[in-house]
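User: Reviewer 2 asked us to show a designed sequence for the structure in our supplementary figure. I'm pasting the structure tokens here. Could you produce the per-position amino acids so we can include them in the response letter?
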């Protein structure tokens, strides 16, 4: 157990060149790996434990499968361990299928609102592979055009954050943009007071947003 508990901290020291992905050995032969091979430079290694794939920009992928969601709360403990011990930017990819769809709203609230992590839903491992390839290419493109952009990891996933905030009742695209510009992250938004929110969206909507975010904590 001691070795496993130390793993997330150790994982934070992994340095991944742009255009590369370091994957957990357990994914060898999977649909994800088959989808990645030939598209990006993939290296499989043992010992990553909690992390499934390391990207550049000090970011990584934690994959939650349909089976994980159906099995119970084991995946939650894994995410909490990662969140508490790692300095990496964790991106959680979740399989949203006909079977797991019933669990998704609660999982989304837990990952995004309680842990403050980024969630990206996919329908299959093939789709997950395409998503990882897109993330790697965008990171490489951003690095080549602006070597300082890697300091702002959240900019890469701004469209996902925007969609997440829009799912709060009464919040459209414009108000979601204003909220993200003001608070910067879901985590800070959740900790905002009614008075802080009023300055952005007005009194009535501020109260609704605050009530919604409070209920999900």
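Assistant: Here is a per-position design you can include in the supplement:
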């Amino acid at each position: 157990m001691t070795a496993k508990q130390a793993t997330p901290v150790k994982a934070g020291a992994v340095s991944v060149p742009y255009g590369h992905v370091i994957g957990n050995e357990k994914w060898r032969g999977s649909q994800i790996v088959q989808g990645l091979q030939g598209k990006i430079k993939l290296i499989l290694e043992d010992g990553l434990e909690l992390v499934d794939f390391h990207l550049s920009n000090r970011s990584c992928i934690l994959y939650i499968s349909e089976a994980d969601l159906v099995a119970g709360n084991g995946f939650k403990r894994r995410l909490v361990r990662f969140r508490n011990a790692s300095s990496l930017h964790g991106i959680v990819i979740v399989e949203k299928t006909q079977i797991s769809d019933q669990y998704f709203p609660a999982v989304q609230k837990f990952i995004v609102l309680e842990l403050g992590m980024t969630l990206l839903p996919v329908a299959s491992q093939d789709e997950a592979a395409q998503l990882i390839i897109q993330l790697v290419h965008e990171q490489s493109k951003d690095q080549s055009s602006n070597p300082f952009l890697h300091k702002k990891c959240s900019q890469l996933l701004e469209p996902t954050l925007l969609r997440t905030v829009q799912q709060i009742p009464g919040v459209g695209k414009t108000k979601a943009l204003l909220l993200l510009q003001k608070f910067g992250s879901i985590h800070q938004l959740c900790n905002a007071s009614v008075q802080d929110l009023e300055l952005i969206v007005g009194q009535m909507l501020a109260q609704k947003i605050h009530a919604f975010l409070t209920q999900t904590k």
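For the response letter, you might also mention the following. The chain is about 50% helix and 15% strand. Confidence is low (pLDDT under 50) at residues 1-13, 144-157.
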